[in-house]
Specification:
elongated, 23 strands, 2 domains, 650 residues, Beta-lactamase, five-stranded antiparallel β-sheet, single chain, Penicillin-binding protein 2a (Domain 2), alpha+beta
Length: 650
């Protein structure tokens, strides 16, 4: 029998344990504690309740937080996570080309890379990670390391990155950003950044102008914009056609490690919007003609001592501009080397008083309205009084008898005003409008001036004494050339244009809309005026009275029509009165007169009037450019010499 049971099988009374220091406590209920429960715990229900309440509270809080995270804040947190891993990069749209009429590139863009560095961070990295830097054996000291960096950049990029300049920027620890190179070759830049990972690359574009100053006044200049990550046109067609040329940047959205676009996760591209390149613009300009026009114009400026000059070469039928030249052009590849006043295009922006080239209006009006014919005799007096003005000719003479051809050929102010009076001011001002004066041509070049024709309502008696001889109104050289284009084109003026077509990124060629022509005079009137103005080039060695003012422009084998012009300039020092020493000299010519192909306009500003032959006339320059043009365009010679015209009666 077990020792703990009585003889009757009942359990023997278990002896009570005696705690040290006193009797053991009895359970409050008189029941025994649960087996395995620690003494003094299992018998306190308040603690159990508190524990359970605490547990429930924790679960409730966790549940609320879970609902908050998965419910109310789900989108916000998801977006935050997306932002941490998503990276968007810009795909640059390559700016379109500008081409001449034959496809010669006048402007194009190439992809380049700029290189920059954080000098302050570089020094801090060296100080904290010297051993890492030394591992690559790029220098034992910071000075050696940075010197090697500068030398290596110079070795790769040459004078574009001079070592001394690079070293100064790299060691400038007072700054957090230093641009080392603006437009580096991408391959060479990659070699640099692979060796020196602290140098940061950034994609750029460089605008290239392969012919330098050729047509720079027309093409203009585009400069890189960091904020837009694209070149922006600042002047010229680069500016006015900026929306056409610049294209549309694209973008790529992908997952990356820690938002670092250098650590793109494979297969993680979310969106890929390719860049759309800019459209190519083809001009009517002929780069070879433009080059020769600029070269000859600059040489003539030097020879005459002129302040500046301009020249326009235009197609006689279509109004297309083959050359629009100004003196002292700029090279857009070195844009920063020039002053603002050197960047303009005076042939379209700067009007002047034309002088006698404006006599074509009187000549056309006389024929159109039946006032006179080329052989009509005009009594030219020594002087002529209109209103409060007394007008004389450029040379002194008594009473002479001139034909209308002689009045134009010898450029008589008096004879011109006598004929203009018969036309009348109302018909005269109507012709000025039809010839396009006082209004922009619409060629599309920025800054174009409309010139100035005084409103008819403001005319006084002396106004009509000025306008027929080219004073009291102003025009640009482009407008002046357009007047003679109308005479060359049988009386139909076609507003000049310089843009031939636009080629979109998909290859679609969009021809430039042709401007609406304006009928100025009848075809017969235009032909009569054109033939009559051959007298300007007439030269009779035996009788100077039969010489025209523009005979130095004569081109052997070709009949020419045209007009010389000399206009006094208003002088502020004289209170706005006309100067006796400052002039604009002009020339407008049609080549050839019997079958017009080209029209040339020339203006020289303030030449030295005292230099024989060239100081007072632009006719010799027309001869030079005309000699080139007939060869370049292979223009056949005229079938014979121009018929002799009687300019002054004996």
């Amino acid at each position: 029998m077990p020792a703990n049971r009585t003889a009757g099988g009942r359990p023997a009374t278990r002896p009570r344990p005696v705690a040290r220091g006193g009797p053991a406590p009895r359970p409050a209920s008189g029941r025994k504690p649960r087996r395995g429960a620690p003494a003094g715990v299992g018998n306190h229900p308040t603690r159990i309740v508190l524990s359970r309440v605490l547990m429930v509270a924790v679960l409730v809080i966790a549940g609320v937080r879970l609902v908050q995270v998965q419910g109310f804040q789900a989108d916000e947190l998801s977006a935050a996570a997306e932002r941490q891993r998503l990276t968007e990069t810009t795909q640059q749209a390559l700016r379109g080309q500008i081409l001449d009429r034959n496809g010669t590139q006048l402007a194009f863009s190439v992809q380049t890379v700029s290189l920059s560095i954080n000098p302050k961070q570089l020094k801090a990295d060296w100080d904290s990670q010297t051993a890492v830097f030394k591992t690559f054996k790029l220098g034992d000291t910071y000075e050696q390391y940075t010197q090697g960096m500068a030398d290596f950049i110079h070795q790769q990029l040459g004078d574009q990155a001079k070592a001394a300049d690079m070293l100064a920027k790299i060691r400038d620890t007072g700054t957090t950003y230093a641009l080392l190179v603006r437009d580096a070759d991408p391959v060479k830049a990659g070699t640099i950044t692979k060796l020196y990972t602290s140098i940061a690359p950034a994609q750029r574009q460089q605008r290239v102008y392969p012919d330098g100053s050729v047509a720079s006044n027309v093409v203009g200049y585009a400069n890189w914009r960091e904020d837009a990550k694209t070149p922006q046109g600042l002047i010229g067609l680069e500016n006015s056609l900026d929306d056409t040329l610049k294209g549309t940047n694209g973008s790529t959205l992908f997952d990356s490690a820690n938002g670092n676009d250098d650590l793109q996760l494979p297969g993680s591209i979310r969106e890929d919007q390719p860049a759309v390149p800019g459209s190519n613009v083809q001009l009517t300009i002929d780069a070879d003609v433009q080059y020769q026009a600029q070269k000859m114009l600059n040489a003539y400026k030097v020879a005459t001592g002129a302040a500046d000059g301009s020249m326009v070469v235009m197609d006689a039928k279509t109004g297309e501009v083959y050359a629009l030249a100004v003196t002292d052009g700029f090279d857009p590849n070195h844009y920063g080397d020039y002053k603002l006043e050197q960047l303009g295009d005076s042939a379209v922006t700067t009007p002047y008083e034309p002088g006698s080239v404006n006599k074509v209006v009187t000549a056309a009006g006389a024929i159109e309205y039946g006032v006179a014919q080329p052989d009509t005799v005009v009594d030219v007096q020594p002087s002529f009084k209109m209103a409060d003005r007394t007008v004389t000719d450029a040379w002194g003479h008594g009473d002479v008898q001139m034909t209308l051809a002689g009045v134009i050929g010898k450029s008589s102010n008096i004879g011109t005003l006598e004929v203009a009076q018969k036309i009348g001011p109302d018909r005269f001002v109507d012709l000025l409008t039809k010839f396009g004066l006082g209004q922009k041509t619409g060629i599309g070049l920025p800054g174009e001036s409309p010139g100035m024709v005084p409103p008819r309502s403001t005319w006084s008696g002396s106004t009509f004494a000025n306008l027929p001889i080219g004073q009291g109104l102003s025009m640009t050289l482009l407008q002046m050339t357009g007047m003679y284009q109308a005479i060359a084109n049988d009386g139909l003026r076609v507003p000049p244009r310089i843009i031939k077509s636009v080629t979109k990124a998909d290859g679609t060629v969009v021809p430039q809309a042709k401007p609406e022509p304006v009928r100025v005079v009848s075809p017969q009137t235009a032909k009569t005026v054109r033939d009559m103005m051959r007298a300007v080039m007439q030269h009779d060695p035996k009788d100077t009275n039969q010489n025209g003012t523009g005979y130095p422009a004569d081109l052997p084998g070709y009949q020419l029509s045209g007009k010389t012009g000399t206009a006094q300039q208003p002088d502020p020092a004289l209170g706005g009165r006309y100067s006796s020493s400052k002039y604009w000299i002009t020339f407008a010519g049609i080549l050839p007169a019997d079958n017009p192909r080209l029209v040339v306009g020339i203006m020289m500003d303030k030449p030295n009037y005292s230099i024989p032959k060239i100081g007072s006339s632009a006719a010799p320059l027309f001869h030079d450019i005309g000699s080139y043009l007939v060869q370049h365009f292979q223009i056949p010679m005229s079938p014979g010499e121009a018929p002799f015209q009687q300019l002054q009666l004996p």
